[in-house]
Fold:
Amino acid sequence: MTQFQSRTVAFIGLGLISGSLARALRASSWNGALTAWGPREASLQRGLELGVIDHYSLELSEVLATADMVVVGAPPAATGEILKSVVNELSRLNRTPVVTDLASIKGHVIDSMACDYANFVPGHPIAGSEHSGVAFADGALFRGREVILTPLPHTAADATEQVKAMWDLTGAYIKQMGVEEHDALLAASSHMPHIVAYALTRALERDASDAMVHGGGALRDMTRIAGSDPLMWTDISVTNQTALLNAIDGFQDEMTSLRDLITSSDAAALRDYFAICRAHRRAHDDILNPLPSRDSEETA
Amino acid sequence: MTQFQSRTVAFIGLGLISGSLARALRASSWNGALTAWGPREASLQRGLELGVIDHYSLELSEVLATADMVVVGAPPAATGEILKSVVNELSRLNRTPVVTDLASIKGHVIDSMACDYANFVPGHPIAGSEHSGVAFADGALFRGREVILTPLPHTAADATEQVKAMWDLTGAYIKQMGVEEHDALLAASSHMPHIVAYALTRALERDASDAMVHGGGALRDMTRIAGSDPLMWTDISVTNQTALLNAIDGFQDEMTSLRDLITSSDAAALRDYFAICRAHRRAHDDILNPLPSRDSEETA
Structure:
């Protein structure tokens, strides 16, 4: 087998996240070929022009025939189906490369994949941007960020180690957990906050005073992710429905509590409430602000 | 009268915002003295050591006796009372300098000030940080940001012009509007978003999975302002109660709509909803992101 960092990585679907992984590998000691397949030739061509990949094909089998590592980057609703096609094609080719994905929901992906493949390692890098497309690929996107792997009971330990080793090269740190735990966690830490940002933005859009024109840093941050890809977030909302609704309910309970405290002008209780929030945020500053100027990179 | 930019500016209360104004004036063509009074000598001493001000006194009358321009920087609940003391003291001194304030709520301030003073120009710079205190004063804080002035029927036009001219030197742009319009606008564009950030942070704080440990850029932005000063936000919540409750209700309606769409897995409606939000945010990108690296300055 080819030496680890000389292996060919095939990106099945080339967008912001998979493109950023390609750039991060390229900037590391990885010297294997980076190839891609995707449904839209324009994205692949753009990736080639930008030097994100070395080669692409519109034939899935052609790309899989040479891949040592396969990275499926697609919306969560499509990822399971694509993984199924990849595994079927690999079986036909009689090849067993390591396969991983990037979807932000694992339960739905694994359910719709509906087949076992010992070298499949479900993965999810906790990084992104309100932009989409390979043109925004950024080799520094994963630096200091978390990548969660959720190996399944039938996943080969060696496959997990290889996916870990690949992500190590991007500056990310790797955690392992169960599929359900991952999906509940992501509902709370990412999916519900996105829904909140969308609701906030829509409330302002409906406000006749055009409040956003007068927005400061608070509104900038609270609405940034409402610029995210509508298709991706529709997918996430639908595929992580149960966990997302739970997280929304937890948030709505807090809004109701705060509204009650404001209605009763309970200054002492408001102070305590806000102080607990401040302390909780400050206790996580190091994790949430790993890089001083992420903002400039993400809006570049 | 002293030439405009050689005038003495007295800061009544020295914190993040007033200190940032002092730094911005110092960095501009302003060459008059910058003085301060405040209830805590430690803050004044710190401002002096950092070169934010030239002089301070713990006697309000001493500072007002030489002031050509008075800037009251205090929490909204206290600003009206302080303005009343300032106007009374100026009357005793038989002086009529221009007076302005920085409070983010105007109705409550003007009500509790409970006196007319022709040279008083209510003001509010739309800029801030989750940090507080003069040590975080930043001369670039207002660059590209909006300052809203709400002159009253009895306000002298010349006083408004002078406050405008002062803010012009900071790189801010100036808008004028009525007091009620300002308070409703700020409830929507700032106060309600802060309440949302607090509710979100508290929901995560109560979540046993410690979701914040796994937060990415989305959570970083959606919780940053939950690190804001609990006392200030208690003040704001109580003093802008009516407008804030209206804005919260508008937001809650949107959360309920989105929750319903997720419950019914209405992908087409979710896509449309998210797309409207994305378009609205993108249409305001220039206003909300005036500087590419505000984030690094604010967290410095």
